[in-house]
Amino acid sequence: MEATLTLEHLLGAFTVESCGAFILYGVFAMQAYSYFMLATRDPMLVKCVAWAVGFVETLQTCLLIQFLYHFMGTESIHGAQYVIWSAPVLVITEVSLSFQNTQNILTDWRRYQQRLIVLFVQG
């Protein structure tokens, strides 16, 4: 018996993953709040970048809610043949956030590597 991938399975998995994304958005919101309360001496450029990332994260979460509501609340399973406008935008925002996070990780790694080299040379 061949297992077929149906829309019900895809939407079920997407719903579970969306719940995880909502939880992580809550963690992000708390970290952003803590940053803006504690980082009063950071340059304005850093604060603007933090605001921009927060805006894109919020936009991505709103698009995710709209996407889920459209398929589960209004169209149910029968509207699967139509791709709604928020699906491609959701993918674009997620990809842009991934690039931003990768850039942050690589930048921090370069700084960390430079500190390690200095520690090894001094040691």
DSSP summary: helix tally: 3
Strand content: under 5%
Specify the overall morphology.
elongated
Count the E strands: 0
First-residue to last-residue Cα separation: 64 Å
Structural class: mainly alpha
Count the domains: 1
Helix content: over 70%
Helix/strand order:
HHH
Radius of gyration: 20 Å
Main sheet summary: none
Q: List unreliable stretches of 5+ residues.
A: none
Q: How would you state the average pLDDT, rounded?
A: 76
Give me some keywords for this one:
transmembrane helix, transmembrane, single chain, membrane, mainly alpha, 123 residues
Secondary-structure map:
Blueprint: H1 7-38, H2 44-74, H3 86-122
Helix pairs in contact: 1-2, 2-3
